[in-house]
């Protein structure tokens, strides 16, 4: 592992929280890198997705590295690692300590890019981006997905999946509504269509509406054209409404 640098740089939240003015206040600071230890792997990240939470999380008083979604290639493995090998394509998990069962309050404090360092460390020497992960906090990237596509999965895609398929799974007989056209909503629309559901979406422009239709969304309501968009939804469903609504709040 002699070719792996020991010092890198990363964009971090400022330690002084009073200086925070959004993502433009991120500071490029030095971080130390170490070879993967027992049960860890080192990943060269080729893509990281930016979510609204990067700007809304804000400083934590410790100079945390933001971003919660990363995808890349395993470049080194630590002692005892058999799940992964050098060259494997992987993406990160949003909650590194929540692997199964009900989510608990303490899991929220270990979210990637919120409670633990994010997936974006720049190694100036090798012109790469590196991060060490525990073996259980990675998943394989399907062959048909690029690194950029896979990097969008951990936060937005799984939020949408959890909304539609965990507590009360939708079916091919469901009619659902997705509000807006951000990452979670767009993923929700695609997942719902894949399940055979009828999907209605709201958005703010015809250009966005066309993109939704290209993804197979059944009906799109422009809420600027219909400020009382709920009335339009009732019309489209013969007064029945929808079984589930995917609403993305801050």
Automatic annotation (TrEMBL):
InterPro entries tied to this protein: ADH-like_C, ADH-like_N, ER, GroES-like_sf, NAD(P)-bd_dom_sf, Zinc_ADH-like
Residue span, Enoyl reductase (ER) domain: 22-250
Segments forming a coiled coil: none
Keyword Oxidoreductase assigned: yes
E.C. code: 1.-.-.-
Keywords associated with the record: Oxidoreductase
Top-level EC class as recorded in UniProt: oxidoreductase
GO molecular function annotation: oxidoreductase activity
This protein's record includes keyword Oxidoreductase: yes
Gene3D superfamilies, sorted: Medium-chain alcohol dehydrogenases, catalytic domain, NAD(P)-binding Rossmann-like Domain
Pfam families: ADH_N (PF08240), ADH_zinc_N (PF00107)
Protein name, as recorded: Alcohol dehydrogenase zinc-binding domain protein
Organism: Thanatephorus cucumeris (strain AG1-IB / isolate 7/3/14)
